[in-house]
Amino acid sequence: MGKFGEYFKSAIKQIIGNGYRTAMTMLGIVIGIAAVIAVVSLGNGMSEFVQSEINGIAGNYGSISLNTSKTSETFSQDDIDLLEEQIPDIKGISPNFSTYGKVKGKRATLEASIAGVAPAYRYSMSNDIIAGQYFNAQQVASNQRVCIMLRDDAKKLFGTENVIGMEVEIEVWGKSVNYTIIGLRDSMNRMYQFLMEGQDYYATLEVPYTSMGADFDFNIEEFYSMMLFADQSILTESVDKAREILTNKHGLRGTSALSAYSMADFSQELDEILGYARTFLLLVSVISLIVGGIGVMNIMLVSVTERTREIGIRKSIGASTGAIMTQFLSEAAILTLLGGIVGIIVGIVMAYIICTLIGFKVIITPTSVLGAAFFSVLIGLFFGIYPARKAAKMKPIDALRL
Are 100 and 112 a contacting pair, CB within 8 Å? Predict the structure, then answer.
């Protein structure tokens, strides 16, 4: 502890005695550490933002489909009943019928994407019902002409979002039918709006699949795709179990005719992609830290040259090679540690400013802060080795002669 105290005092003396030079040397470390902290925080905020926005677009569901080129089997209501019986923890299952057409309100007529679905489809997106209610099993069974639409679509069609009870005219394949609006979904999130920017605008409507079948001549007795809705924690397991049940029921074992995919799988893949992006950004920021380390090495070499006589005197009175080397390594480590502490403070401030301006959540983990401090010391030790060895290997007679 005594020797370390001496090394620390010596390092502080050198830092204070060469204030301007020390500040310029520390600047590289400060910039490097600040960049690492800011980039890690930005990466975490970006991941949280993208994940939440993507989940807001897609919701928690699994898709189960039949490949018609590989099998003549079809799904039916019996399959839905079987899955809901054998997988009781799920929120529900819906057949997946969809088509394009037009929807007409009092103020406008829009191109429309129309989904014929069951009540469980309300869980397909995170923007839940904000007015009215979703259609229920009884309304589906009785083929009622009711529909759900988005708040934005209601404003375009009627000039207001107070549309519950109003009628819209839905046209598909030249046939028009009036449907009553009974529910209104919230607007889609920013990610969806960004992805759809520049594309043709389509209103989004959800109607009972039985009504779609009756009004627009869809065969709802047989279908090739269905959606399973469950909490994220059990989604993948539920989809896998549904695939196993349907594979056995339809005799499709050993074929690739039935496919299943869950949004939980997509979330994992997205996590991996975002992880690569965060790693790339971190590596780029580390380059500035390495540049700062090179600056430390240069200033330590200058210090060794300036203190040649001091080194010679210390060695002549018995200082060991290891002691001289430890002294200069300690100075390099303390110099970079101080730069690291300042860099952490600057990095946290930068992270708050950047994330706030972009709209990301500020996520700064203790691991990243402690890791940055530890890494700054390692940089000092690594880039201080060569100057320290150069100082330690000096012969006393040569050092005193200079």
Answer: yes
